[in-house]
Design brief:
Largest sheet: 6 strands, parallel
Strand content: 15-25%
Radius of gyration: 16 Å
CATH superfamily: Flavodoxin domain
Number of helices: 5
Distance between the termini: 18 Å
CATH class: Alpha Beta
CATH architecture: 3-Layer(aba) Sandwich
Number of strands: 8
Helix content: 25-40%
Structural class: alpha/beta
Bound molecules: flavin mononucleotide
């Protein structure tokens, strides 16, 4: 990879003041940083995005700055609460803003849910597929007050799932980032050929 560090954009998709999604994404971001990754946290509560409008969304300096952050990332770590079996509107709105910038990158997903968040995970995987991104072959979910309490991960099960995610983000994130760079620079007819400059 260009500068050796795996670059992760970690997106907090809950606007809730006391969000458990925020707690977990920040914990994972700290761990990834500790493990040698470069991590950029996008907290949509602190950095609100206007509702996506295809006629105007790309015209602001704010959009250009965010686009550069998404472009820079090798891995997109997405955290969202389960809202009616679906992703939060804040998360959907973020995702609507980009696709080329996601292509060939790895999505890793974490869902706060009382019901395993399977439909939410599936929706994030669908977005990844539509945008030519890869996703880990599983999603991680957790239950507030059972798995995360007082700002800490308290269940052994969730600790194990997070350890797996942290390891896989680094290993598969690096593999895919290396191949993405090679494909963008190469001449083979892979799916990234259309994104060569
Ligand atoms: C509008 C709304 C809809 C929700 N729908 C569901 C749901 O369908 N299934 C579920 O398990 N939890 C549902 N929840 C609960 C949240 O997913 C849960 O409280 C989550 O931990 C909140 O995460 P946050 O604190 O990061 O926002 C819903 C909460 C809200 C506010």
């Amino acid at each position: 990879m260009s500068d050796k560090l795996l670059k992760v954009l970690a997106v907090i998709g809950s606007l809730h003041r006391d969000s458990v999604t925020r707690t977990v994404i920040n914990l994972v971001a700290n761990r990834l940083q500790h493990d040698g990754c470069s991590v950029d946290v996008l907290d949509l509560e602190k950095e609100p995005l206007a509702l996506y409008n295809p006629d105007t969304a790309h015209d602001t300096p704010r959009y250009a700055a965010l686009q550069a952050r998404v472009e820079r990332a090798d891995v997109i770590l997405l955290g969202t609460p389960d809202y009616h079996g679906s992703i939060s509107s804040a998360m959907k709105n973020f995702l609507d803003h980009f696709w080329r910038e996601f292509a060939g990158k790895l999505f890793a997903t974490i869902v706060a849910s009382h019901e395993k968040g399977l439909t939410v995970t599936d929706q994030l995987r669908t977005v990844a597929r539509q945008c030519y991104a890869w996703s880990l072959p599983y999603g991680v979910s957790f239950v507030e007050e059972e798995d995360v309490k007082g700002g800490k991960v308290v269940s052994d099960g969730f600790k194990t799932r997070l350890a797996m995610l942290l390891r896989d983000v680094r290993v598969y994130g690096e593999l895919l980032a290396r191949q993405r760079i090679a494909d963008l620079a190469g001449k083979d007819p892979g799916f990234l050929a259309r994104l060569r400059k």
